[in-house]
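Section 5.1 Outputs to date
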Amino acid sequence: MPRENVAGSAKQLSYTLFAAARHNRVAGSRGPACWLEQWLKWWLSLIINGYSVYLYLGPLEDEIFSPMIPGFYTDEFVQELNRRHELMWGRSLLETYHFEDLDAANFIQWMSNSWGQPRREWQQLGPIDAWRYGSNWEKVVSDKHVREALKHPKILQDEATRLFNAIRNADYEQDSSHWRTFPAPDVNYRAAMHVDRWMAWTCREFKQNPIKSVQLGEEVYLNDRQLPTLRYTLVRADGSELKGELPFEYLPKSECWTGVEGLDWHLKN
């Protein structure tokens, strides 16, 4: 059996045992089930994080994620998948992924956003000289960029401008299932939760009442989470304002900045 198939089978077996152990613990069983759960967490960490280096023998930019199987996904399949999801995580697929309905059509639409699409892992491989910074290279590189951002506010002012311009120029007609590439494929923002709802709110609100201007603070400072942050005031067409603080986090593997939670208007309205 190919090595990747062995790893996949081991991971699937581990997930199944983990679900069983978790189910027993929730049901009131103690002792062996709790011990098994802890052991499986350790075992899964070895499988998932078992490699520190990957060698790609072709241009990763040209690869696509595994395509979906035509005619395989039925309503019955989705119902069974939902049953297993509830067993493992205690909530339904509807609650987790916000499908409009629990059927094959909605499942296929959601899965098609990533399956069969170009892989994005090549954007998260990190710099080729990461080894120079040691095993803690991600923190070392991130800290370096944070120091530079605090010393030169224009770095994050430019990043914030890119983010707001991407939101202003985004396609407000697209479905919220495209949240992975919103507001633009090369512009990053991470909401605290429900990023699809953030996209839906942004499209609805700024379509009805567009962004007129954005004013950025001149100071970059560390917030209580030690993230470099700047203040903003967004003015809409009717004169109303959205004000707040916009933290940024540097992503060493992607070699870029991402806005973090400061634009979560969907959680406030």
